[in-house]
Amino acid sequence: MTLSIRQFPCRSDNYGFLVRDEATGMVAAVDTPDAQAILDDLAASGWGRLDLILNTHWHPDHTEGNERLKAETGCVIYGPEEVRRAAPLDHVVHDGAEVKLGETVFRVAEAPGHTLGHVVFHAVEEKVAFVGDVMFALGCGRLFEGTPEQMWESLQHIASWDEATAVYCAHEYTASNARFALSLSQEPELVAHCEAIFAKRERGEATVPTSVGVEKRFNPFLTADVATFAERRAAKDGFSG
Q1: Whole-Å CA distances, 6 to 31, 96, 225
Q2: Mind listing the pLDDT tens digit for each residue in 163-174?
Q3: Confidence bin at 11 (pLDDT 50/70/90)
Q4: Fewest CB atoms within 10 A around its CB: which of 2, 69, 84, 134?
Q5: Over the stretch 116-163, which tens digit does the pLDDT of each residue have?
């Protein structure tokens, strides 16, 4: 694999990600939930540099480390225009753009729904994607700014990728999502999948990354139609299981 990925917990339930292109040694942080946690992990990695920040959307738990990390490392920040609502941004990315981390190419796809300008970063050849708050393991983001139609289309786009694609979502919400999925279905394979998730969390293990194939099989928000998606998203908003 031409990419090395370090994943570490930040804040209450975020994940931070550092990504290294092995051919050149260039390093990127995907979102910046906690500048100190990112700097600490960068030091632990021995990688010795931070070249890029890739922001998926503007929310502070994804951007608040931008200013400090840029000041301390000189890194260059890529993200959607909306990031400027909360943090510094050097280069605006749009649907279909490519961001290069050394020899690794991340394809940008607009993925509105959670926010209107949300993007995802997809390294197609490496079968790796960073999807922010669009898709979660067994879940999807809340519709803070977008419509059900927008989020449904964003999820459908992710589901169209190679099933082996590793999906790095930004929060550890999987146990709650699993309980909601079980409220909709007691299909034996789903029950077994959720039991494995609960066991992982009891051991303190991460459930991220997931994969496109796993989510196509089990994620209750990858529905066949927008109306069902909207129904389930509204139900999850009020779910307390």
Answers
A1: 13, 26, 36
A2: 999 999 999 999
A3: very high
A4: 84
A5: 999 999 999 999 999 999 999 999 999 999 999 999 999 999 999 999
Both tokens assigned to 6: 């370090």
Distance CA 81, CA 62 (A): 14
Question: In the numeric block, which tokens belong to residue 67?
Answer: 């200013």
Specify whether the CB–CB gap between 111 and 154 falls below 8 A: yes
List CB contacts of 37: < 8 A, sequence separation 6 or more.
8, 9, 10, 16
5 φ, ψ to 5°?
A: -125, 130
Separation CA 151–CA 229 (nearest Å): 9
The model's pTM: 0.97
Mean residue pLDDT across the chain: 97
> Which residue has tokens 């917990």?
9
| Confidence at residue 1, expressed as pLDDT on a 0 to 100 scale | 56
Q: Considering only CA atoms, which of 185, 208, 187, 188 is closest in space to residue 197?
A: 208
